[in-house]
Amino acid sequence: MHDIRAIRENPGAFDAALARRGAAPMSSEILALDEARRAKILAAETAQSDQKKAAKEVGAAKAKGDEAEFERLRALVGDKKAEVTAMQAEAKELDQKLGELLMTIPNAPLADVPEGADEADNVEIRRWGTPREFDFQPKEHYELAGVKPGMDFETAAKLSGSRFVVLSGAVARLHRALAQFMIDTHVDENGLSETWTPVLVREEMMLGTGQLPKFGEDSYQTTNGWWLVPTAEVSLTNIVNGETLEESYLPRRYVAHTQCFRSEAGSAGRDTAGMLRQHQFEKVEMVSVTHPDKSLEEHERMTRCAEGILEHLRLPYRTVVLCTGDMGFGAQKTHDIEVWLPGQNTYREISSVSVCGDFQARRMNARFKPVGGGKPEFLHTLNGSGLAVGRALIAVLENGQQEDGSVALPEALHPYLGGKSILAADGSLI
Q1: Could you tell me the pTM of the whole model?
Q2: What is the DSSP string of 92-114?
């Protein structure tokens, strides 16, 4: 959410930021609503002052025995009271309209975010690892002999429809091992605080992190009003919703492993084969809550946390800065980490790490008290996948595949698999 005072002070800069995202200027519409709202508030305050003044004079007129003046003033008090009530209601309605409008406007990109229309304009900043050269044609994950016994799309479709999967046996264990490995690494090496959160949240929590009101079709709502989280970013970030923290409490660094749910609205026909794009999936999510002066430094730190998981797994990746046209709604700047998938012969996104500035904090009214005193200030928030578990499973399977359909598994996972190191062609761990 945007600071209305900043828009008043520099509407041109606000419209320029929207233009970088390919959006039309909105400052005129916003400021017209704001001016009307402020005018109604001022008129209500003036009428209320007149009401109080007349109310005092009513008693004086009564004491003097001036019945005509008493009746006139009493009627005036009644009229002013009704006028105040009406104006306050109008001001409240205008304030609600302004708030709702501001809620639909994306965050302003930082100055160093590259301009562009879509993913083709993203800028690569580094690569790690060299994609393996195969002496056979590599397959996609769901085509591997060792994977087929433990990855069942037909049963999932019977149970739930398309874009679901049933994992079993060694593949299910490998999926679980990846999540446990990620959590342990983030806690033990990266200093994040392990957190377990609900996957059902109130509507105001989805508003707080920006999934609502604009992107409701991307998520699932229950019949009693709860929302299924599309990512643990929602529950983790909203831990500070409505809170005013001590500055000494910062930064807060959370990590959670949860189920996530997305409708995949607008993705018809995309990635329908395999488990790359699912309605229900698991993700290890990182969220940081920081002092404004530290958020850009924290963005780099979180990116390295996510990259480190892939390096431990010996999976080649590249990191890109998303252009203005490809960034998420609430982000000021985003690093996408893309892992190499030999079955597709391309890099695919496995983590997005975003700094949001005070955009979410304003929506949540989340602040901190400066150590040196002064008014509370809005916090800065960041979020990032550390990593998407299902996509990490795909990457491990495809990069470790052998010609006979077995998979050599990363050494980092061996302790989580009872010392087993290979997914055999018959689907067992050996």
Answers
A1: 0.93
A2: HHHHHHHHHHHHTSPPPPPTTSP
